[in-house]
Inverse folding.
């Protein structure tokens, strides 16, 4: 099992949201998840024009991918998030504020880099989340 320590060193100050400044990891194996979109198993867009519904599907896909490899939320060491509209940043922060305490009950939220992009692979997608996990 990986030794994962999620930290917020005083020298960096308090994070601006539901994430931590860094993760220190000792692991024998890593998982690199491709960016997950709000597509179901059949490849259909879930939550067209509904940011919260898209977030729910994205994180459900992440959870399924982790579980397929015997991992879970506690194995995540880093997120990278891509949003199409800057106006969705507050919605993304609200989603994380509401859902992350369930996913990460110890309150240690993995680091997250949030990037704005012109578009994702298909027009209807509003959010994509990439994950690195340690086993």
């Amino acid at each position: 099992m990986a030794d994962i320590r999620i930290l917020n060193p005083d020298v960096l100050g308090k994070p601006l949201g539901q994430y931590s400044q860094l993760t220190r990891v000792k692991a024998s194996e890593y998982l690199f998840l491709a960016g997950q979109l709000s597509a179901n198993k059949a490849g259909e867009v879930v939550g067209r024009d509904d940011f919260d519904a898209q977030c729910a599907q994205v994180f459900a896909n992440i959870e399924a991918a982790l579980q397929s490899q015997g991992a879970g939320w506690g194995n995540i060491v880093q997120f990278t998030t891509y949003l199409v509209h800057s106006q969705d940043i507050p919605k993304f922060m609200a989603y994380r504020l509401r859902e992350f305490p369930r996913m990460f009950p110890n309150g240690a939220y993995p680091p997250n880099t949030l990037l704005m992009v012109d578009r994702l692979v298909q027009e209807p997608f509003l959010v994509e989340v990439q994950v690195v996990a340690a086993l």
About this structure: The beta strands are 3-7, 22-26, 30-36, 76-83, 112-116, 127-134.
